[in-house]
Amino acid sequence: MMLVDDDPGVRQGLRYQVEFADMTPVEELGPHLGDLSSYLQRGVRADAAISDFHLSPKGYAPFNGAELVAGWYKQNFPSLLCTRFEKAQIDIIRPHRRWIPTLLSPDDLNPDSLQTGLNMCIREISNEFIPARRPWRAQVHFIEPDPDVHGFYFLELPAWQRSEIIRFRLEDIPGRIRENVAPGYRCFATSNLGAEDVDDIYVSEWES
Questions:
Q1: What is the tens place of the pLDDT at every residue in 132-178?
Q2: Residues 150, 53, 114, CA angle at the centre, nearest 5°?
Q3: Which of 66, 67, 77, 199 makes an SS bond possible with 93, Cβ 3.0 to 4.6 Å?
Q4: How many Cβ atoms are within 10 Å of 184's Cβ, its own excluded?
Q5: Is 16 left (phi over 0), alpha (psi -120 to 50) or beta?
Q6: How many CB atoms neighbour CB 194 within 10 A?
């Protein structure tokens, strides 16, 4: 399993969990992994991977782990995102979450959660989704800009049973949609309407 983290100490901790799961760890030593497109074109020296979210310190990589794991998923390569995430990070991860089946905190990483996460990723790649992750075409209703944080907008998914407000970064919305965004604007996108927690909701594949 490929281990991607800018901190050698964290990679060592990941090694232990991977070895306990009877897998062979392969560290991505870095630094300077290059741009995301070029890195994804490289041959991966493992059957799966686990990545941290923050990869930019010390020039390790100019992209983040959410972009990397989502890119791997689209290439049918199973991987997990393991990071200490806060609300602000969830907002940045959310646009990629459609292609990140498993998001783990380091405290929750163990051989069982590692194997369970990989199995879920492999099943999704084969188009087998658990209810909380299944993608649906959903209407998106834009409510208002976030008055406290520039560049963010509040929106809701009327068909989602929880009906909680979601905060979304405008720069992560395609330009053809973004230019029309205003209070009350509606469009369609893909979302996992079976999600039970707002932190797990994704909104992607926007339709104008």
A1: 999 999 999 999 999 999 999 999 999 998 879 999 999 999 999 99
A2: 140
A3: 66
A4: 8
A5: alpha
A6: 16
Handedness of CA 58, 62, 66, 69 (dihedral sign): negative
What residue type is assigned to position 49 of the chain?
Answer: A
Instruction: Supply 139's token pair.
Output: 């209407």
DSSP 62-114: SS-HHHHHHHHHHTT--EEEE----HHHHHHHGGGGGG---EE-GGG-SHHHH
Q: Please state, in angstroms and rounded to a whole number, the distance separating the CA atoms of residues 123 and 78.
A: 10
CA atoms within a 13 Å half-sphere pointing along the CA-CB vector of 51: 25
List the structure tokens of 137.
Answer: 């075409």
Q: What is the pLDDT of residues 172-202, one digit of tens each?
A: 999 999 999 999 999 999 999 999 999 999 9
Per the DSSP assignment, residues forming a β-bridge with 9 are none
Strand partners, 4: 28, 51
User: Could you give the CA distance from residue 165 to residue 156 in angstroms, rounded to a whole number?
Assistant: 5
In total, the chain counts a number of residues equal to 208
Instruction: Output the pLDDT for position 34.
Output: 85
